[in-house]
Amino acid sequence: MAVRSSATAASVGLPAPIAPGAAGAAWRRLGRLRWGVGGAAAFLVIVLSALLAPLLSPHDPLSVDIRNRMAPPAWMDGGTPEHLLGTDQIGRDLLSRVIWGGRVSLLVGVTAVLLSATIGVLFGLAAGYFAGRVDWSIMTLINVMLTFPFVLLALAVIAVLGPSVPNMIMVLGATGWPVYARVIRAETFALRERDFVTAARALGMSHPRIVFGQILPNLVSPIVVVATLQIAQIIILESFLSFLGLGVQPPTPAWGNMLGEGRVYMLNSWWIAAFPGLAIFITTLVLNLMGNGLRDWLDPHMKL
Amino acid sequence: MRSYLVRQLVQLVVVIVGISILAFSILHVIGDPVTLLLPQNAGKEEYLRYKHLLGLDQPVWVQYWKFASRAVRGDFGKSWYGNTPAFPLVLERMPPTIYLTLSGLGVAMLIALPLGVMAALKRHSIVDTFCTMLAVAGQAMPIFWLGIMLIIIFAVRLKVLPASGYGTWQNFVLPAFCLGAFLAPLTMRLVRSGLIEVLNMEFIKTARAKGLGERVVVIKHAFRNACIPVVTVLGLQFGQLLGGAFITETVFAWPGVATLTVDSIRNQDFPVVQCAVVLLALIIVTVNAFVDLLVGLIDPRIRAGA
Predict the structure, then answer these.
(1) Which residues of chain A neighbour B149 with C-beta distances below 8 Å?
(2) Do A277 and B149 touch (CB under 8 A)?
(3) What is the pLDDT of residues B199-218, one digit of tens each?
(4) Which of A272, B227, B240, B273 is most buried, judged by most C-beta within 10 A?
(5) Are the C-beta atoms of A43 and A286 separated by less than 8 Å?
């Protein structure tokens, strides 16, 4: 199925001979890297603002200012400079809530990615290194997992476990691993035939030592690239679950549940839904730029 | 060809069995149906009685076998909420979801095909750069936010289109565009890279050397070949497309399977959730198998290679 064809594509990641017009290509590569560096810088700003939320946010994200409820952003008629992005239905400051909301999204995104990367890399290494029956079983499992839309699987499990932040991290982590497993499997297939692995085997190294000591260090680049791009996906999915009311529960501010609450008031107060969504969009955009930049920098031939 | 078919069929059966195990274990292994069904203050005796009543005190594989053999006959049990059979309840909501998915696919094609072809023909031009930027932005766009913004702009402010509802063509415009925008970036990139690859091939040089017009070369020779990867990947991304339709439905209150599933999750109505999950997965698997077969028919190299 899809898995197989793209896996073979990835395993043919041989360096291409330098083509005519290489100077132009180098310029273009630099141009793309510029986007990547910009993305990384912007992501750093987002991470810092989430970490420093208590210092940066002008108001307490939970404090209610009922006189100023549904105040529009400062630049509109009726807006106050006290609330730059306006306030929500019970008068909480939107800017502060957006800054604080980043904490949950990033926390869930990063921890879920660590979890799924660990599972995925282990499965991918096992499938690629041992091949044969192990590979067949793992590939079947991957096929089954990939058949389910990610959303549906996560929803079904959350439905049974109940919505909470640890449950969400577990679900997103446990359902996100096939992406890593596919890439790592294909790369491991290519590596296990290389001379240094044969040499290690001839020296009598044990399987775990070969896999973790010899093969894994060569797989750091693809893992980093996939993980960066996956954080963006996880953040979108976390927001969607929170948007449905099945993720982070109010009053804890998270971009997703702010968007879900704002939807109710979109007839009169568009800003309540607009700004949290904008925050999700910018964060995923920046992560995608960073991921693409990393891929071009670490290994331009990688196909993901 | 026959061995190719057999291989595809075996894989299909394995995946379907896998899906049924997954759907079964979500409810029965991760969760405990009895605690979900009983009120929280129920005593231990009541718990055990219900467990026996539902046959949940039997070994897991016996329970799975019961679940699977009933599911094959379209019996997913009764909805805990409405006390009606789950299967027809889900089936009834299927057509809106399928119409939405198809119209979203149509919109994606309308956006992606012309842009992708233009980007491939004029590489590194303004059009190409614009397409790349559009693709990067489109892939980062959370579609549930896009949907809400579309509603705010076109339904609340401009009042030209309905915000939700189902039945007339106006109801289709916003959801279909929303879903199309979700799928268009990937499609555009596939069309672009596929066409670029084909345009560099020998038979295109031959066609040009024969003195054929550029239009004939691009449309008749190149584009047809470039369609193969597009069809394959799109077919295999059908699950993602359905996932996108799922999200779109919840934003526009579309009366499809997704809205039903989310409502059932809120009501803790697990037979319906289970049935919806299995049916959607079956549709995806069938479409995937069909696409595999179709591509195998079009392109003999894949039959041999896979």
Answers:
(1) 274, 277
(2) yes
(3) 777 787 788 778 777 777 77
(4) B273
(5) yes
